[in-house]
Write a structure and sequence with these properties.
The chain is of the alpha/beta class. It contains eleven helices and eight strands. A six-stranded parallel β-sheet has the order 2-1-3-4-8-7, with helices on both faces. The chain has one domain: Thiamin diphosphate (ThDP)-binding fold, Pyr/PP domains (Rossmann fold, 3-Layer(aba) Sandwich). Helix 1 packs across helix 2 and helix 1 packs antiparallel against helix 10. The chain binds thiamine diphosphate and magnesium ion. Magnesium ion binds next to strand 5.
């Protein structure tokens, strides 16, 4: 070929870019599908926060476990879920991850350690702590990760989770996606403290990072994960970012200054990564080829999901309620 291999920093940037592009493309398509009425239920998009899911996932191994929240598409995709089954689930189709019964807030895939999205704010925290306890007792060498928002900091279960994890030196990484908003309320109006002080209150190590800089998130996550894997106990990684979209798709964000949204848009983590990759020597054609490749991949998954069969009516309530004959008398 007559060309030297790209320096590893460049190829790593391109890998991070590719992973973020996949999350962005998938969520933009979900937004369009939702607007067209093709998605039952609500969806919450993480557009503008891709550097958090992708940066943290870059530090993980396949069998590390991950608990997510209601804004979990990025976590799931970055952890390596099958894109077809992901879209099939969100469109409510039979061959989706939960046979179409769960939708956006219940996507899970144990084969890649994805313990599930979760519609209950804060509920992923004890799931991750339990998973970390299992890793420790079984000596798997794996760790558990949980993504939660600033809103979850105000939930009682967060305190129980931080306390037990630190007390029992559990291998768990707490990732706070501090996007400044909890539904329609600014974080400052509902938190008396901040994530760093909260971790310190439990004698837990904590890091704070620019959550829109994927390289910084990946570096911080790698450092935290190395210490956790070495048996040094949990760590809280606070990723400072800003929500771009409404709380849910369809939220007109009338409670929010236009300037706040514009600032968040200007700080796009994909644009930043693209600029960094080009400065590091990546050709523009390579970036364009990644965009095209990812768009094709998402097109294919959307087509599969659209043509997928709906669940048979007889299956629609299976595993949802216990059969009455199994109820205790
Ligand atoms: C226990 C519980 N309380 C309230 C809600 C309603 N609710 C859904 S999302 C949300 C805000 C979550 O904010 P945050 O944790 O910061 O995540 P973000 O939406 O910003 O990603 C609330 C209050 C809920 N789902 N569960
Ligand atoms: Mg928030």
């Amino acid at each position: 070929m007559g060309r030297t291999d790209p320096p590893s920093a460049t190829s790593q940037l391109l890998e991070l870019y590719r992973a973020m592009r996949l999350v962005r493309e998938a969520e933009e398509r979900l937004g369009a599908l939702f607007a067209d009425g093709e998605i039952p239920g609500f969806i919450h998009l993480s557009i503008g926060q891709e550097a958090v899911s992708v940066g943290v996932a870059a530090a993980l191994q396949q069998h590390d476990t991950l608990a997510s929240n209601h804004r979990g598409h990025g976590h799931a995709i970055a952890k390596g879920l099958d894109l077809d089954r992901f879209f099939l689930e969100i469109l409510g189709k039979r061959d989706g991850y939960c046979r179409g019964r769960g939708g956006s807030m219940h996507v899970a895939d144990m084969t890649v350690g994805m313990l599930g999205a979760n519609g209950i704010v804060g509920a992923g925290l004890p799931i991750a702590v339990g998973s970390a306890l299992a890793h420790k007792l079984r000596r798997t060498g794996h760790i558990a990760v949980v993504f939660f928002g600033d809103g979850a900091m105000a939930e009682g279960v967060l305190h129980e989770s931080l306390n037990l994890a630190q007390l029992w030196t559990l291998p768990v990484l707490f990732v706070c996606e501090n996007n400044g908003w909890s539904e329609f309320t600014e974080a400052a109006r509902q938190l008396a403290t901040d994530p760093q002080r909260m971790a310190a209150a439990y004698s837990m190590r904590a890091l704070q990072v620019d959550g829109n800089d994927v390289v910084a998130v990946a570096a911080a996550a790698r450092m935290a994960v190395a210490q956790i894997r070495a048996g040094e106990g949990p760590c809280l990684l606070e990723c400072k970012t800003r929500r771009v979209r409404g709380h849910y798709e369809g939220d007109a964000q009338k409670y929010r200054d236009a300037g706040d949204i514009a600032t968040a848009l200007r700080n796009d983590p994909l644009v930043r990564c693209e600029v960094q990759a080009i400065a590091a020597g990546a050709p523009q054609e390579t970036i364009d080829a990644i965009k095209a490749e990812i768009a094709d991949r998402v097109d294919a998954a959307v087509a599969t999901a659209r043509s997928g069969a709906p669940p048979a009516p007889v299956d629609a309530f299976a595993d949802v309620y216990s059969p009455t004959h199994e109820l205790p008398s």
